Amino acid sequence: MDRETLIQAIKGLVTADPRIEVAWLGGADATGRVDARSDLDLMLAVGRGGKETTLQTFEAGLDRVIGIRHRHRFVEPHWSGFDQAIYLGRDLPDDLAIDLTIVPTDTPPERRLLEVDRHGEPVVLVDRLQWFDRPSRIDFDRHAARIDRRLARIRGLHPFFVSVVRKGIDRGQDLEALDAYRTKLLAPLCELMRIEHDPDRFDFAFRYLDRDLPSDERALLERLAFVPDPEGLSSSVDRCGVEIEERLSRLTAVRRVPVREAAASAKPSDRR
C-alpha cells in the first residue's frame, strides 16, 4: 500500500465516525517535506468522554486496512500533553509508521499544534468543528515570553554547565563529559541559533535544521557536534562556550525588538 492510498483509507475511517470531530495530517505532509522515508503524523480531535471507545473503533478499522503488526500506546502523555500511539502495518514499510495523537476537542486553540508559522499547513481530513476556517497563527506576546524565559534559563545555567562538562573531561569520564556537552552546551547553542534565525520554531531542537538555519550556522553546529575523539572534546567545549556567550550578548540587545519584527528579519535557508 502506498502513502496516498493509506491516507485515503484513513480519511474514510475518520469521516465515517462522527465521534472524530476533526482529523488532519501534520509533520511532513503539513510542511511539504514528504519523501520516501516519511511517516504519517495523524491528529484526531475527540471528546474526552469518548476517547477510549473512539480509539478502539479507529484501531479496529485501521487493522482492517493495514493489518496492525506492532502497536505502542504511550502510558504518559507525550511532550504536547496529548495521548499518543504508534502503529506499524503488515502491508506498510516500517518508514510509513502511523504516529497518532489524540487532541481533546476542548483544547484551547493555542495548544492544538495548528499554528501555521510553526507546524505548516495541515492536510485536513475532516473538520466538523470549523477549526480550519481560518489559519491559526502564533500569539506573538505569548511566544515572546516563552523565548525570554528560555534565554533567562540558558543565561543563568551556562556557567554551571561549562563547569559540569569540564569536570567530566578532567576526571577522565569521557562518555559522561560527551553526554553533558551535547545536552548542556550543544543543545542550548542550537536553541540560540534558532532564536536568532528562526524564532517561530526556537524549540524545535535539531529537527529541520536544513530548512531553519543558514548554511554557515548549520555547518558550525555540525562541526561542533561531531567530536572526533576524547582529545577533541576540550577544544569543542571552548568553541561552543564562546559561541553561546556571543549569542547571549547579541540576543540581550535584540530582545528589545518585538518577536514579530525579529521573525520577519530572520533569514533561514528556506522558510516555510
Domain tally: 2
| First-last Cα distance | 29 Å
State the helix count: 10
**Largest beta-sheet characterization:** 6 strands, mixed
Summarize model confidence as the mean pLDDT.
91
What order do the strands of the largest sheet run in, or round the barrel if closed? 3-4-5-2-1-6
- Briefly note the structural class of the backbone: alpha+beta
Q: Provide the succession of SSEs.
A: HEHEHEEEHEHHHHHH
Give unreliable regions as ranges. Answer: 256-260, 262-272
Measured as a percent range, the helix fraction is 40-55%
The outline comes out as elongated
Q: Report the radius of gyration as a whole number of Å.
A: 21 Å
Please provide the count of β strands.
6
The amount of beta strand, in percent, is 5-15%
Plain-language structure description:
- With 272 residues, the chain is α+β, with helices and mostly antiparallel strands.
- The protein folds into two domains: 3-127, Beta Polymerase, domain 2; 140-265.
- It has helices spanning 3-16, 27-31, 51-66, 116-119, 140-170, 174-197, 209-212, 215-225, 230-254, 259-265, and strands at residues 20-25, 40-46, 68-73, 83-89, 98-104, 123-127.
- The chain has a six-stranded mixed beta sheet.
- A hairpin with an 8-residue loop joins β4 (83-89) and β5.
- α5 (140-170) packs antiparallel against α6 and α5 runs antiparallel to α9 (230-254).
- It starts with a helix and ends in a 7-residue tail after the last helix.
